[in-house]
Amino acid sequence: MEPGVITIIHTEVPEELGGRGIAATMSKYALEHIAANNLQLIPLCPYMRSYLKKHPEYQCLVKDREEKSV
After folding, report:
1. Domain of residue 9, CATH code
2. Which of 13, 36, 37, 56 is deepest in the core (most CB within 10 A)?
3. Burial bucket for residue 48 (CB in 10 Å: 0-12, 13-18, 19+)
4. Per-10-residue mean pLDDT for the chain, 70 residues long?
C-alpha cells in the first residue's frame, strides 16, 4: 500500500445481475473518484484493465508506465 495510490484487485457482480453494465458503472465511478482526488491507479483486476483499454481517457491515472499499456 502506498499513499495516494489505489489498487483495484477485483471487480465482481452477482451472476444474476450480469450483463446490465454494473461492472462498467462501478469501474467508471472508481476512476472518477481517483481522478477527483488526484490519486493514481494500479489496475490488477482483469476487468479494470479491459475497461481502461476501452476508455483511454483514464490512462493518465495509471501509476506506472508499464501499466499504461493495459
Report:
1. 3.40.630.30
2. 13
3. buried
4. 92 92 96 97 96 97 67
